[in-house]
Amino acid sequence: xxxxxxxxxxxxxxxxxxxxxxxxxxxxxxxxxxxxxxxxxxxxxxxxxxxxxxxxxxxxxxxxxxxxxxxxxxxxxxxxxxxxxxxxxxxxxxxxxxxxxxxxxxxxxxxxxxxxxxxxxxxxxxxxxxxxxxxxxxxxxxxxxxxxxxxxxxxxxxxxxxxxxxxxxxxxxxxxxxxxxxxxxxxxxxxxxxxxxxxxxxxxxxxxxxxxxxxxxxxxxxxxxxxxxxxxxxxxxxxxxxxxxxxxxxxxxxxxxxxxxxxxxxxxxxxxxxxxxxxxxxxxxxxxxxxxxxxxxxxxxxxxxxxxxxxxx
Length: 313
Known about the structure:
InterPro entries: IS701-like, IS701-like_DDE_dom
Pfam family, one: DDE_5
Organism: Ferviditalea candida
Strand content: 15-25%
Protein name: Transposase
Number of domains: 2
Largest sheet: 6 strands, mixed
Distance between the termini: 89 Å
């Protein structure tokens, strides 16, 4: 009939022990369907919502959280069941962003993997742990082809973050972050400046806006930087394979940062009096002049930056 998922009942929750069992059924009477009053269902198999939610609950109850994450958050390993309940409630907030319940289950699976003690937290390794080999392809297809409302998801997240840490004297921060890549087929990948190493490497580059206050810190928005070479004719086929929007035009990292800061300020979700950034943005006069009105900026500058004191008359 299949395999068990490797869970055991523990009170009102389920805990993962990893020992899967194969389930066999021996047919003693070929008339069993008639005797039991069960007829074959001609409809395609699908996962009912109630079963889907129970499966997600079982998944999140697996006590395999990364011990470093628990330590940084000041959480004892014995409190993992409380963390699971909190995580389930949090992820439920994003249900309106999905068009199908299966999408939410796949997203929850990957998030659980990111919080787990897996050494490599790639799509394949996450799927192999929680859904088996048959779950690798569906999780890959979810990230490649699945259409859910990411703007609604971002809005839900921003509203929650603002309610927790928003205050009048808050500070918007902008910075870049790079992700090393071995291949050449990921969207936006190229040999470019890799900030952590301070040299040119094959990587993807992103620009991120954060928000900080006396109550805490969190990321607000993000953009993938697309190198100018990706807009050349030699990348036509790769852009199609990566589903790059046809109307996307080249933007520098500073232009992406400026657009995000303006959008955040216009939304009014995050009250702020300051904008902070490093010298990659602080030495760009056009970027500084594009900052939202009414904000002070606190920026780094390069060591060879020329500064001219104003002349008072």
